[in-house]
From TrEMBL:
This is Nicotinamide riboside kinase 1. InterPro entries: P-loop_NTPase (IPR027417). CDD domains: NRK1. Keywords: ATP-binding, Kinase, Magnesium, Metal-binding, Nucleotide-binding, Pyridine nucleotide biosynthesis, Transferase. Transmembrane segments: none annotated. The keyword rRNA-binding does not apply. GO terms for cellular component: cytosol.
Amino acid sequence: MKVLVIGLGGVTNGGKTTLAEKLKKMLPNCDIISQDDFFKPESEVETDERGFKLYDVLDALYMDEMVKSIRNWMKNPASSGVVTEETQNTCGNLKNTDDVYILIVEGFLLYNYEPLNELWNRRFFLTLPYEECKRRRSTRVYQPADTPGYFDGHVWPMYLKYKNELEENASNVVYLDGTKSQEELLSCVYSDITKELKKLRE
């Protein structure tokens, strides 16, 4: 039994979750772990001098728990409740993948935490320009809600900081333009993953 761990990281509101859900429907034996499920409760998230809750940093997340969840899945993916029958894959190029399980891990801070970086088979990073990201963010409802100035004061600067770190330290990251259509992004990532599956089976 082989496993393929795919990272789908990048900017807030870049389309990560939508892309992950669409891939899950198309790929055999595919599961998703979402970083958003590992946020600490609000009471444990630090507040800066401006009163902003610092959610867009690694300290706001139970990262060790996340790594543990991924490792547990890798040890025994078949017991994770993966559904194999529902894939919409009709092109026939993914036959004989019963022995390969795919995990898509999606989140905004995936590649800046060292223990996670030994787990990836492929890494994708969605980007958006400032204006588009701010526009999308303003249409979303968060719990707790974004306070005035939060995007410019915390969210965007943290995104740039971690993206710069990534560009300096990481290789083999595929950068995706989040302004492209969902279909284009899906097609690009799907074809990349199918190549990885073929390699695994060779």
